[in-house]
Design a protein that fits this description.
3 helices, 156 residues, five-stranded antiparallel sheet
């Protein structure tokens, strides 16, 4: 789903339960999301689309629901540039030990087919921190390897 798509059906997941809801971006400064479904209306705001989605997810999580969108995946997180320059409308799919690239960008509100990839806000943040740590470990290992492979004049 792109931000300008209008009303879009979104799958909500709670364990084995599935419900459809309608999601709409109703504002951009700040970003506002409106979710209608299950006889309820939920709204959230944020300085970017990702933060508005996080606020909506926290509200849904109180009842155990997760929205099946790319921005709710355990392995997804926006870069600072995606947030600052793109309003968090696109998000990176993260890979352990590998820096994020433009090839990894997906629409934040695009649907997720595999609901096993979904996570709570806290789980997503933990996965993001683990990804950052994996980058630091890889960089440290590469520096260590470079030092071991250097030959110095006094090496025999």
């Amino acid at each position: 789903m792109t931000v300008d798509s209008g009303d879009v059906s979104v799958l909500l997941v709670r364990g084995t339960e599935r419900r459809l809801a309608t999601l709409r971006v109703v504002g951009r400064d700040p970003y506002r999301l409106r979710l209608e479904g299950m006889g309820q209306l939920k709204e959230s705001t944020g300085p970017d689309l990702f933060e508005a989605l996080v606020a909506l997810r926290r509200d849904l999580e109180t009842d155990g629901w997760l929205p099946a969108v790319q921005g709710a995946r355990r392995d997804a997180y926006p870069s600072g540039m995606a947030r600052d320059m793109g309003g968090g409308e696109r998000i990176h799919l993260l890979h352990t030990g590998r820096p994020a690239s433009t090839a990894d960008l997906v629409d934040t509100l695009a649907p997720v087919a595999d609901v096993g990839l979904l996570a709570t806000v806290a789980q997503q943040h933990e996965a993001y921190v683990a990804w950052l740590e994996s980058l630091a470990r890889k960089e440290s290992e590469e520096k260590s390897q470079a030092c071991r492979s250097r030959r110095f004049p006094f090496d025999v």
